[in-house]
Design a protein that fits this description.
Blueprint lengths: L7 H6 L7 E2 L2 E2 L1 E2 L10 H14 L9 H20 L8 E4 L2 H16 L5 E5 L8 H10 L2 E5 L9 H7 L4 E7 L11 H10 L3 E5 L11 H4 L3 E5 L10 E5 L1 H6 L10 E5 L2 E4 L13 H17 L1 H19 L5 E4 L8 E6 L4 H9 L3 E2 L1 E3 L4 H6 L5 E5 L6 H16 L3
Parallel strand pairs: 3-15, 5-6, 5-7, 7-8, 8-9
Antiparallel strand pairs: 1-2, 4-10, 9-10, 11-12, 13-14, 14-17, 16-17
Helix pairs in contact: 2-10, 3-10, 4-5, 11-14
The protein binds pyridoxal-5'-phosphate.
Length: 409
């Protein structure tokens, strides 16, 4: 362990929340696809901001405002290099992935989607990458098309190819499935869409936390993610967009900060990114997010992914030996997520029994009801791994799950 420089005990030390008992047992937190825990550096940055720098940004003539503005804009620079964006003006702060998608639907959508146009999503999308497009299509008289998936939970690329046509204006697909862990072949999805003349939005809510995501290498037109799944605070997300698109799109919300000049005879809008950041933004969380990005870069994305892959392989093999264990989602390329059923049991009951021994998992439809319908199930139990999880924790899960499954199988 020490040789590679990766020390999971040292990493765990940085996450205060992990060091507690739940129902009399040490907490085993395996609900990272819902939200990850935060390192102390992020928590301290929030405290530090409110105790020393709290101020509104961009406008103030005083020292605190200047400091807060610097820190806020520094995070934008860090996010820009985190994604390898061509410039920091292409990084827009939002409330989260959901708001990022809604922003694109109501600005790009309002301007560029017309009657008869088609938008393509996939059968494994999160509700936040389904409903905004349904709303837009209903408003515009456009049509939503869905890429089907295999029983293993992989996109059927031949069917995707067939859906693409000159009517396709946008393809919006998740990079990694929150419910199955499938990693989608994003580069092919994007190049095929571009050949058809369509733009592409990548829902990167589950990918940015596990491996390097390079917006220029992908050549995506938009990409969105949430800070809270990447060791950062809640209530904060990022939208990346290609410059020419962001410049052509109308503003999302009207208000302060997004304007250059307001007159009752008409208003001129601010430059990007400010055009899309109306009102006082989430200053404290943006500033603290810097520390989450620093945490990830200190650990190193390669080491982080290698550790998580080791955990996923170990868990898949070990839990697979339990009688009555049914994995859901067997894609060849997966990260972090192990979704499953225990034969004869409702996922919710399994979740409650695991909670009784301190193990936190997610149960239910994972905000992907159409996907659950595709598998003819109501939901699954989902264990999802982050950089601070250990093989010992998987052993604890294995022992409890074996006991639970034995009663029914
Ligand atoms: C979590 C998630 C979302 C929604 O993110 P919010 O932070 O709730 O806005 C969208 N897509 C995927 C794939 C997700 O995992």
């Amino acid at each position: 362990m020490a040789k590679t420089g990766f020390d999971v005990d040292d990493i765990r030390e940085r996450f205060p929340v992990l060091h507690q008992e739940v129902n009399g047992r040490p907490l085993v937190y395996l609900d990272n696809a819902a939200t990850s825990q935060k390192p102390l550096s992020v928590i301290e940055a929030l405290n530090h901001y409110y105790t020393t720098d709290n101020s509104n940004i961009h406008r103030g003539a005083h020292a605190l405002a200047a400091r807060a503005t610097d820190y806020y804009e520094n995070t934008r620079k860090s996010v820009s290099s985190f994604l390898n964006a061509p410039s920091e003006e292409q990084i827009i702060f939002t409330k989260g992935t959901t708001e990022g998608i809604n922003l694109v639907a109501s600005t790009f959508g309002r301007k560029f989607i017309h009657e008869g146009d088609e938008i393509i999503i996939s059968a494994m999308e999160h509700h936040s990458n389904i409903v905004p497009w349904q709303m837009l299509c209903a408003e515009k008289g456009a049509t939503l098309k869905v890429i089907p998936i295999t029983d293993d939970g992989e996109l059927i690329m031949e069917e995707y190819e067939k859906l693409l046509s000159s009517k396709t204006k946008l393809v919006s697909v998740l990079h990694v499935s929150n419910a199955l862990g499938t990693v989608n072949p994003m580069e092919s999805i994007i190049s095929m869409a571009h050949r058809a003349g369509a733009k592409v939005l990548v829902d990167a809510a589950q990918s940015t936390s596990h491996f390097t995501v390079d917006v220029q290498a992908l050549d995506c037109d938009f990409l969105v993610f949430s800070a809270h799944k990447l060791y950062g605070p809640t209530g904060l997300g990022v939208l990346y967009g290609k410059r020419e698109l962001l410049e052509e799109m109308p503003p999302y919300q009207g208000g302060g900060e997004m304007i250059k000049e307001v007159d009752f005879s008409g208003t001129t809008y601010n430059e990007i990114p400010f055009k899309f950041e109306a009102g006082t933004p989430n200053i404290a969380d943006v500033i603290a997010f810097q520390k989450a990005l620093e945490f990830v870069s200190t650990v190193g994305k390669e080491q982080l992914l290698a550790h998580e892959n080791e955990l996923l392989t170990y868990a898949t093999e070990k839990l697979g030996t339990i009688k009555g264990f049914i994995p859901v989602g067997k894609a060849k390329h997966k990260v972090s997520v192990l979704s499953f059923l225990i034969n004869g049991m409702h996922p919710f009951d399994v979740g409650m029994m695991l909670d009784a021994v301190g193990i936190a998992v997610r149960t239910g439809h994972h905000c992907a009801q159409p996907l659950m319908k595709r598998f003819n199930i109501e939901g699954t139990v989902r264990a999802s791994f982050a950089v601070y999880n250990t093989k010992q924790e998987i052993d604890v899960l294995y022992v409890s799950l074996s006991r639970i499954a034995k009663r029914k199988n």
